[in-house]
Amino acid sequence: MDEKVQNSISTKELCREYDWYENTFPSLVQDSCDDFFAENFDIKFIGLSKNINCLTDNEACFVTKIRISKDYDMFFRLTDKAISIILNTVLGQSKNKFNINKMSELEAKIITSFNSSLYDALKDELLTPQATELKRSDFNVINLTFIIRNKEELDKTAGKIIITLPESLLDPDDIEPAGDKFSNENFPNSETLAKILVGKTKFSLYDLKHLENEDVVVFEDSNIKQLKLSIDDTEMDVNISPNMELLIPDIENEGDEDMGETHKNIWDSIEVEMYAEFDSVKITLGELKNIEDGLVVDLTSLYDNNVTLKVEGKPIASGSLVIVNDRYGVKINNVIAQGNGASPVKPQNNSEDEEPSDDNQYDENSEDNYEEEGNDDNYSEESSDEEGDEEFDYSDFELEDENI
Fold first, then answer.
1. Do the Cβ atoms of 25 and 119 come closer than 8 Å?
2. Where does 2-128+137-169 sit in CATH, by number?
3. What is the CA radius of gyration of the chain?
4. Crossing angle for the helix pair 80-90 and 2-37, nearest 10 degrees?
């Protein structure tokens, strides 16, 4: 616990001091590099840290230690990529891939001399060393990370230069808040993004790939008096007054038995979890506080009646919110094709007085229409097994063993 607290304090200190480091050292490093390598490289300051382990990412480094006094040292680390960029520019492009463990004496001397020039450029920014009773290994350090690129290289391959400074020899300015920049009175009107979740239900893959316009999907775990609000993956229940104008007659799935018989393979019977949500909306912190207090909140001003159905985070269809008995549902008005916009769907008879259209007649007409439009990916109800496999890509969904 103490270590976590200390790391947190250190991070806050570095955040307040970052501006000073950024204004002090990058220009000195760039000028030193320009003087030494004739302005061939771009240097950019990218990081400030007390932990060296998170900077090198297991990269091989050439390390130069330069003694400031008997108590203090500075370290210069160049990754193998940085050295390769420098040597290929200074000595010409090598035919062999650079290997830091096989550096020649000339190559090592070039890098060591460059590090010495960096030290000469930075040493004036350090305080005069004072005698200390601490062991050398106990000194805290600050690591400055830079990336180096060749100005002429098109691929802009980059390497790292990490300079380690004794913290005791630095006197950074930190930025202190001048006062409250945000009044408490402003919080109720401040906005944040939130998602409104309708509900979830289990859906077979066969039913999923045969979704059509005018179909209604009912969400078994939904509650017409309650929705869920999701903010940064944190969910909370929202008490609402349901809009009973969305109520439609109960829908009986008369075709369930027939649908079960049309399953062609084991994949068709696998169930996945489908959920419905509104698009992200803006909600004020004042409204959010009312939700947390358990009050009934009017969300009609926060969303329209457009809902997206998703499976594994992928949009499957969109439609309008409806109420069926005591559950929410979505009436489909747009089925999203796999990777190619909206999917054509079969016309559906909603009137009880009308007789169902002949399947063969429908297939023949729809096939003619699709051929005229030149769309190879269109839907055909009666197709070969191979075509049926192509119209829905099961690989889009990650299935657990327990679902099979």
1. no
2. 3.40.1550.10
3. 33
4. 0
